[in-house]
Amino acid sequence: MQIWVDADACPHVIKEILFRAVQRVKVSLILVANRPLQIPSSKYIKACQVASGFDVADNLIVQQLHCGDLVITADIPLAAQVIDKEGHALNPRGEFYTTENIAQRLSMRNFMEELRSSGVNTGGPSAFHLRDRQAFANQLDRFLAKHV
After folding, report:
1. CA nearest 74: which of 143, 9, 3, 127?
2. What predicted TM-score, i.e. pTM, was given to this entire model?
3. What tens digit of pLDDT does each residue of 73-112 get?
4. N or C: which end of the chain has fewer CB within 10 A?
């Protein structure tokens, strides 16, 4: 099993949690972004820089993903592709995307996208809080305890 991170929009604090976790359980972590990333020196942590462009990082993750791998992303279409490939998708706020909830999440995302494209100000995501960080750490720990 490997852990993949859609790293362009991943909060720094979540990356730090991941860095500590993979060192502890000795699992490979690959951060994929379209810009250079600062990562600690570790045989378990790698950064992969891809070209700029729409879904370039997402496409690389999906192409390299194996059944059972974990992907950290807030990107709902990417999460849907991960689930289709029998991977696991966890967002930085500690919520797993599943076969049971992904269709509803995609529908809501598409609806909000339609509103935005028609000029409606839908606001953005809520601020990232300590409880989000804690929820992520707890879900990651549970996942790793079960799968490693």
Report:
1. 9
2. 0.91
3. 999 999 999 999 999 999 999 999 999 999 998 988 778 7
4. C
